[in-house]
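Input record (one chain):
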Amino acid sequence: MNLNDTNRLLKWLTVSVLVIGLVGSAFITGFGIGFGTGRWTAAPHAKASASAGRPMLAITPLPTATPRPEKRPVPEPSLSPSGKLNRLPEEPKEFRVFWEAMKALKEDFYGDLPNDQEMTYGAIRGVLELLGDKNTTLLDPQTAEFFNTDLSGSFEGIGAWVDAAPGGGVLIVEPFEGQPAYEAGIRRNDVIVQVNGKDITKLPLSDAIRLIRGPKGTTVRLGIRRPGESKLIEVKVVRDRVEIPVLEHKMLDNGIAYIKLSEFNSRSPDLVRDALRDLMQQHPKGLIFDLRGNPGGYLDAAVEIGSQFVGQGNILIERFKDGREHPYPARPGGLATKIPLAVLVNEGTASASEIVAGAIQDAGRGPLIGVKTYGKGSVQVPHYLSDGSLLRVTIARWFTPKGRGIDGTGLEPDIEVERTKEDREAGRDPQLDRAIEYLLNVEHSSGED
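The corresponding structure, as predicted from the sequence alone:
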């Protein structure tokens, strides 16, 4: 099939999506993506990223290990050998139903209709809903721009990692400790259903978040539905500048090295390497790698970072629907392939984080300590559409080196330890304490390859 035929096919597929979506479950919203609550001011050097940062009131993907997107120009109509533009053939008769339905709605519907763009997106999302895959999603141009924003920059908002709540509203996946939402008493699994008295349960997630975000120093009133509470809770949050580091590293008092990674973005591999170089020079007794609350990010970042801890074998195996497999072997030169290791995980550890945690677990490099992980094991590729919108399509699923599937199931920890709400409020971290205990009681010999 030549390029012209391919272009024709893609165009007809787009029209087909509109037809099926309108006749079927059209106008269905929902992105299946997560958002970080904040107001983003880009740094001059910010790069595009498919794993936009959690600190901002922009968009972070639902935990994903997405290949890095490269914007591809929309093909121009090509010339045939005769010099004439290659155009689509006449509209197939099956598409008449679509235009008949559109005409009937515009002429006879009693009420206000969405504009043409909203109906187009609604029709496409109708088809996506039929697929039953929450990770194959369409982002409108504004949302897509947020989605491709790098973590660099300044953020103003309430400071929380969120997602669309079942039944409407904004689900708090993880409030950032020490940031406005957390300090105001907002907790994991809270659902924001009102913003300044306005019901947001019928709004698309992106619109709801735009109401929540705002400049530093301003106050937003949030109506919260909390599990176990019968009445709506009103919380006032003073927005502030939110700065969440991608990586934190330090030596603990007992000679244990500690690295916490917040996201697998384009800078993460270099940051992890720099942190390991610094820590390994201090000859630690062991190393704790904290992946709690990490929603994932780039697949290649996961492979690069996993290779720092796993010296040989695969980091993951990617499987496609036609049966093909693509193994991702560990890359040479890992800086921490011998030191005793423990990995902290929780229900917010997802996708790229699960790739790394699963590789470490399968290689026997160290135990996973905490609670069961999120369970996101599929790979999406981005398709940029002509109006700037972004279609993310699931193309494969990934498995641990030993062939364990994680999508929908997650990883079970080797050592199960919960961290309760009471632990958090009291500043206790039993998961970290258990990791330290483990490393202090294993035979070890620190060093580098």
